[in-house]
Amino acid sequence: MPIITELFYLPPIEHFVAIHNEKMVLLDIQENYQKQTYRNRCQIRLANKVETLSIPVLGGNKKIRTELVKIDYNQKWVNVHLRGIQSAYGKAPFFEYYFPYIEEVFQKKIDLLTDFNMELLTVCLKLLQLDIKVMKLDKSDTNSESIDIRGLISAKSPFEDRNIYQPAPYSQLFGLDFVPNLSIIDLLFCVGPESSNILVKSQKNH
Q1: Per the record, a Pfam family (predicted)?
Q2: DSSP readout, 164-177?
Q3: Which of 15, 121, 143, 177 is the most exposed place for a label (fewest CB within 10 A)?
């Protein structure tokens, strides 16, 4: 049964918990773009705080379809994000194995936000060893069989408000307290091949 969702930037763990059991994900990129969402931001854990990495976009203030939103490369955000990821996870057990795949996408300077996010999502699914087919949602495809979770996973409300994700703690790099629902790269860099098992354990109704 396909699951319909938005396309996020290095999505939070909750998003992968939601799609983990599905064979097909349909991504709605024809929706109107929304600012201050996971579409262009993700969260990573640094030594002293949780950092939000945000991709600057062009025309995000106007009513524009997500598929038309372009990334603003006049701002030096690529180095900021890569340096942030390196300082957060450079000493993580699986960083040296997985980081080159992520870095390669950043270095392509992809024009459209959706194309950039799609490449990163494809890399993350590969590293998670999840066999999920990802397609863009065709609006004519009104399949009543689909599970629609659009609008559910929001950066503006806590995951506890939703019935998707129940954090299964894993070994993080900094601090004694476990921080849940960071970007999927936190999980990948810290536990590597065990990531998929953590996703299963994190399902609220597993």
Answers
A1: WbqC
A2: SB-------SS-SS
A3: 177
For the beta carbon of residue 76, count every other beta carbon within 10 angstroms: 9
Nearest CA to 4 out of 199, 15, 55 is that of 15
**Domain presence at residue 15:** yes
Q: Does 206 fall in a domain?
A: no
pLDDT tens digits, 39-78: 999 999 998 899 999 999 997 777 899 999 999 999 999 9
Query: How many residues appear in the chain?
Result: 206
Q: Is residue 125 part of a domain?
A: yes
How many helices and strands (H and E) does the chain possess?
6, 8
Distance CA 187, CA 105 (A): 19
CA dihedral for 103, 108, 112, 115, sign (positive or negative) = negative
